[in-house]
Task: inverse folding
């Protein structure tokens, strides 16, 4: 077996793993509803009556939009293109980053075996595009030919998800430190222009610089101690469910910090800071999701470090063992029994893929489609179709309160207004304190009296008088014409911390 044959076998094994476990999560349908509304002429909106940026990944949305416009298909399209992007990232890892193809091929098998990396290679979220951009970034970083190209790729990473600045920021800072004169300006412009351009667009169109999800998840009113405690639980869950990748991250950071190569050290610092950041904000409800990107970058660091000496003689044996283990893992994961309820532990973290796979997995969807001749609709999507039928022909949108707003919103269509109780799609609720019993990542808001009854109107209101100025400013920023009088004053108040006092006020009449 030649090294190129081994690479091909590793890629095929990884492809089988990704395709066999491919799935779409409910949150992906939030972005798909925005894309569907845009394609149908309603603008980049989740609810057509208001401009709220419900997505955290502008570049992923830009990538998916023309594909969706061609297929009008919400499940197979993102799954298949996600697999392609992930495999391209794996190929770059093995052939452009790793010291040897044999070593890189083993790292491909390791990546595919990781639950976090594999699960979020599909899922409909931005992660596979993040993998590809990280691989390109590291490859160009070590070539050291045109540093502004590396910086430009880092800029695209920020456009794909803004908090990735923590992951790649130290490496970009190292580039700036080493650059001289005009090169520094090129690097600074290349890394900042994509994100700054989108922020400017967001301020003009949505009325705020950052995604509404950031305000909903970071502006909860929870104290730092409680958030860190939740973040520690999230990290513990990752260590126990994806132990191998956790060890890879720890070893990569340890080796990078000891390295004499400044770039390697900077990448290791980025991984470490990102893990600290995820812990400090309370983690997430999707098991392993936010460790997938730093985990892939850790594999890139591994690829740049000297390969173990035994690999030169044992790579064929290790490769065959790795492919065999991956095959067994694939069968085990496909044969996992379907779940009727989310596996939510006391810390609020769940294995989302295991819950949604029976409904949105590539293999189950294709099997049902071939068996019946009719493309299946997920259970939550069928509820959305019922709402669509109820809302058809109505003069005003049908208002429905919900906490899981992806499939229900997408299949509900544009004449159904989803009142999102966890505030991802509601700019007003996102600025209110979360209920104390909220699940991590799903910070539920108590609906102010009068708001649900009027949210479908052009200018909703509330019975709580102290909240009316905030709601009026949100209405100006998100519902009024872009050039409406007073809109820019409202945008300034919303973005300058003018309403921070709400988190210290007993707005509901009784302390929580």
Result:
């Amino acid at each position: 077996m030649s090294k190129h044959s081994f690479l091909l076998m590793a890629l095929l094994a990884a492809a089988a793993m990704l395709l066999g476990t491919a799935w779409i999560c409910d949150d992906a349908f939030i972005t798909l509803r925005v894309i569907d509304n845009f394609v149908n002429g309603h603008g980049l909106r989740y609810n057509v009556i208001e401009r709220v940026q419900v997505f955290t990944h502008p570049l992923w949305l830009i990538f998916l939009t023309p594909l969706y416009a061609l297929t009008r298909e919400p499940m197979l399209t993102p799954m298949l293109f996600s697999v392609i992007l992930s495999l391209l990232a794996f190929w770059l890892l093995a052939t452009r980053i790793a010291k040897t193809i044999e070593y890189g091929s083993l790292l491909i098998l390791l990546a595919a075996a990781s639950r976090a990396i594999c699960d979020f290679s599909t899922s409909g979220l931005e992660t596979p595009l993040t993998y590809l951009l990280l691989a390109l970034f590291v490859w160009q970083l070590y070539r050291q030919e045109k540093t502004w190209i590396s910086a430009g790729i880092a800029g695209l990473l920020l456009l794909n998800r803004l908090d990735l600045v923590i992951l790649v920021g130290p490496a970009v800072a190292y580039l700036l430190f080493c650059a001289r004169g005009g090169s520094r300006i090129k690097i600074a412009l290349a890394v900042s222009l994509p994100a700054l351009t989108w922020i400017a667009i967001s301020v003009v169109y949505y009325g705020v610089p950052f995604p509404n999800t950031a305000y909903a998840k970071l502006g909860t009113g929870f104290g730092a101690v409680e958030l860190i405690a939740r973040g520690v639980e999230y990290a513990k869950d990752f260590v126990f469910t994806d132990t191998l990748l956790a060890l890879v991250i720890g070893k990569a950071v340890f080796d990078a910090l000891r390295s004499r190569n400044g770039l390697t050290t900077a990448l290791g610092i980025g991984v470490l800071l990102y893990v600290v950041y995820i812990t400090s904000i309370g983690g997430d409800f999707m098991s392993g999701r936010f460790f997938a990107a730093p985990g892939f970058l850790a594999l890139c660091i591994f690829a740049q470090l000297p390969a173990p000496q035994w690999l030169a003689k044992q790579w064929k044996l290790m490769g065959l063992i790795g492919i065999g283990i991956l095959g067994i893992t694939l069968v085990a994961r496909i044969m996992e029994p379907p779940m009727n309820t989310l596996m939510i532990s006391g810390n609020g973290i769940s294995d989302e893929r295991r819950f949604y796979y029976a409904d949105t997995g590539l293999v189950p969807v294709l099997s049902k489609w071939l068996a019946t001749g009719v493309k299946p609709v997920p259970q939550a999507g069928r509820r959305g179709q019922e709402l669509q039928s109820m809302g058809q022909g109505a003069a005003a949108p049908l208002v429905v309160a919900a906490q899981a707003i992806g499939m229900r919103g997408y299949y509900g269509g544009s004449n159904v207004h989803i009142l999102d109780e966890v505030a991802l799609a509601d700019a007003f609720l996102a600025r209110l304190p979360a209920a104390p019993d909220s699940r991590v990542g799903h910070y539920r808001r108590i609906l102010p009296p009068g708001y649900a009854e009027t949210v479908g109107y052009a200018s909703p209101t509330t019975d709580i008088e102290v909240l009316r100025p905030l709601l009026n400013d949100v209405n100006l920023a998100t519902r009024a014409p872009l050039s409406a009088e007073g809109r820019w004053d409202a945008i300034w108040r919303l973005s300058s911390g003018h309403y921070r006092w709400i988190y210290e006020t007993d707005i509901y009449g009784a302390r929580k």
Q: What stands out?
A: The beta strands are 398-402, 416-420. The first strand starts at residue 398 and ends at 402. The mean pLDDT is 91.
